[in-house]
Amino acid sequence: MSSQKISTESAAAADRDLIFVVIERHRELSARYDAALSVSAKLDGGAGFDAADEISTQRNDALAEHANVLIRSAPTTIAGVIALTRYVGRLREWELPDDDAWYRIFLEVLADAIDRIAMAQRLGRDRD
Predict the structure, then answer these.
(1) What is the pLDDT of residues 76-110, one digit of tens each?
(2) CA gap 122, 128 in Å, rounded
(3) What is the pLDDT of residue 31?
(4) Does any domain span residue 7?
(5) Does residue 5 belong to any structural domain of this protein?
(6) Which of 31, 34, 54, 66 to pair with 118, CA 20 to 30 A apart?
(7) Which superkingdom, per the lineage (predicted)?
(8) Model-level pTM greater than 0.70?
């Protein structure tokens, strides 16, 4: 699947479920942190390294903060549940919250989201 098609599908899905926006922001912050680390790795001490290391630290802090947002964000559609589950399942350890028990929060939020989606679907069928 082309990246243009994925981007278009993500934008359309975000209209229905804001979890796609949360996922995309996490993806961007991960890429920014990874890029900053790549710069730091090429430097060997000195003022340039210190500046690059400071940028890496700031980007890591932003990523860590958003990782907590990611695991606490509830999808509102089945497509959002699937996308979030797949996305989190593919993340590297440094992209996840520092808390070792993050998965408990994530799974509880996800289960509650699925329950709300199922309830909304049942209510929709009852109205028909």
Answers:
(1) 999 999 999 999 999 999 999 999 999 999 999 99
(2) 10
(3) 98
(4) no
(5) no
(6) 66
(7) Bacteria
(8) yes
